[in-house]
Amino acid sequence: MLASDMASGFTPDRLEAIAALANLELEPSEIELFSRQLQDILTYAEAVQQVDTIGVPPTTSVGAGHTGDREDLVRPSLDVESALVNAPDKAPGSGFFRVPRVIG
């Protein structure tokens, strides 16, 4: 759904329906505030969609002239013992340290 489809009639009732879908409990003051804010955002998005972009080439990078990648060089780094000196639970001889299980 485009912003222009909703911008003309974004109401507190619509916000309540969206909040219910997201299992959010909102106070009446929040409903009023958020519906006004969302209306403003959608109105702005509608204005942006009206901008004439014919003849404007697509942007492929926002950092013109910046390559973003650095040369891959081998550099000196910490030895394994120095890297693990403060590790709370070292796995002896493996060069690693243990962390609590996250996924069951």
The level 1 CATH classification of the domain at 3-49 is Mainly Alpha
Classify the beta-strand content into a percent band: under 5%
Task: Count the beta strands.
Answer: 2
Cα distance, first to last residue?
Answer: 38 Å
Question: Structural class of the secondary elements?
Answer: mainly alpha
* Gross geometry: flat
Total DSSP helices: 4
Order of helices and strands: HHHHEE
Helix content: 40-55%
Low-pLDDT stretches are none
Q: Spatial order of the strands in the main sheet?
A: 1-2
Description:
The chain has helices spanning 3-7, 12-21, 28-49, 80-84; strands at residues 90-91, 96-97. The protein is mostly helical and 104 residues long. The protein has a domain at 3-49: Histone, subunit A (Orthogonal Bundle), CATH 1.10.20. The longest helix is centred in the middle third of the chain and has 22 residues, at 28-49. The model has no long low-confidence stretch (mean pLDDT 82).
